[in-house]
Amino acid sequence: MGLSDVAMEVVAYDIDKLPAASCVEYRYRRYANDPLWIPPLRRQLAWYYDPQFPFYCLPGNRSRHFIAMEQDSVAGHVSAMIPSGPWAPDCGNVGLIGLFECHSEAVGTALLTAAVDWLSGAGGIRRVLGPMNFDIWHEHRLKTAGFANAPYFGEPYNPPAYVGILEGAGFRPIRTWRSVLAGDPECIRRVMAMHEQSETGVLAAGYRFETVDPDNERHVQDLHAVQMAAFHGAVAYTPMPLKDYRDLFTAYARMADIRYVTILRSPRGEVAGGAIAYPDPADVVRAMQGETSLVARFRILLRRRRTDRAIFHFVGTMPAERKRQRGLGRALVHRLLRRIVEDGYRQTIFALIAEDSGARPFVGDTIDRVHGEYALYERLL
C-alpha cells in the first residue's frame, strides 16, 4: 500500500500471533525525543499485548491488531476491540479503537481504516469509540489542547497531530473533559473556603473519613464500589471486576504516593463516598524510563525532587447519599485540599472534569485556568 514516499504495508494479527515487543518498543521510539512524555513501564505495556490480559480472556470479547510496516520497521499500530460486557444502553453495539500510535498522517489513516473496516465486517457494530484501550479504566481519550503544559501522571497524552488524523478518518468528539489548575496556595484556599462548612457539617452528622490502605481489603472494596457507582451510566461504562480493580489500584499505588486517597463512612459505618488525590510523581516516573531495574532506581535517586503540585483525580458519593444532598462531595474536596496545603504543595490540578460533571462547581474560578482538554471520539458505521 503506497500511502507515503516509503512503501508501507498494514499487517493484521490475532493477539496470540502479535509481535508484542515490536509494539512496545515502537511506542518508546515514537516519543524518544519528547521531553514531556511520561513513559509507562515497559512491563505494563507488554501486559496489554499479552493473551492472558483480562480483556482477551473474557468470553465473547474479540480483537484484531494492526501494525504498519515500512522497510521492515514498525511505523505505527492500532487495535480494534469488540467488548461483550454490559455496556450502557445508549452505546448500542460498540467497537473500540485503541493502542494507537503512528508517526505520520498517512500511516495513521491507513491503520484506522484497517481497524474500522474489520469492525464493520464483524457484524452488528454500529459505533466505533476511541481512543480507548479496552475500557474507561485504562488509557482512553485524546488530548486536544494544552500541549505546551507539562503533563501530570495519569493524564492522556498524544501528539497534537493525532487530533487531525482521527477527525480526518471520520471520527467526531462526543464528550469532552478539562483539567484545570489552581496555580498557587491562595487559589487552592479559595476553593477550600467554598466547602469548609460542608466538612464541618458532615463531621457533626457523624460521618468519618478514613485514609485508604491498599493492603486493607475492605478499603479497596469500598473504593471500588464508589468508583463503579460514580461512573455508572457514563459513555462506554463497563463495570470492572473487583479482582481487576484491586490489581490496577495496587499497581497505581506502587507508582504514586496515595496518602490522600480517602473513604467517607456514614454514621452506620457504610461507605458513603471517596476521593483520590496524590502528589504528582511525573518527574520520578519520567526518570525511570519505563524500567524497574536497579539502574532505573538509581536514576530516581539522582533526579528525585519534591514536586510542588498535587493532582485531585476523583471525588464521588454513593447514590443513596447523593439523594440526601448532605454535601459529602464538597466535604471530601475540602478534606483533601486541606491536607494538600498543610503538606506544602503550591499547585493543584483538578483532573479530567467532564463537561457535564456535577463536580464542575466544586472548583470555582479555577475552571477557567485550563491545563488540558480531552475528547472521546466516535465514528458511526
Model description:
The protein starts with 7 loop residues before the first strand and ends with a strand. Strands 1, 2, 3, 4, 5, 6, 7, 8, 9, 10, 11, 12 and 13 form a 13-stranded mixed β-sheet that branches. Helix 6 packs antiparallel against helix 13 (328-342). It is α+β, with helices and mostly antiparallel strands and 381 residues long. A hairpin with a 5-residue loop joins strand 9 and strand 10 (271-279). The longest helix has 16 residues, at 105-120. The chain contains 13 helices and 13 strands. The protein folds into 2 domains: 8-140, Aminopeptidase; 181-374, 3-Layer(aba) Sandwich (Aminopeptidase), CATH 3.40.630.
Biggest pleated-sheet summary: 13 strands, mixed
Radius of gyration: 21 Å
Shape: globular
Number of helices: 13
The count of domains is: 2
- Low-confidence segments, given as residue ranges, are none
Say how many strands there are: 13
Strand content: 25-35%
Briefly note the CATH topology name of the largest domain: Aminopeptidase
Question: What structural class do helix, strand and pairing data support?
Answer: alpha+beta
Distance between the termini: 24 Å
Q: What would the average pLDDT be, to the nearest integer? A: 91
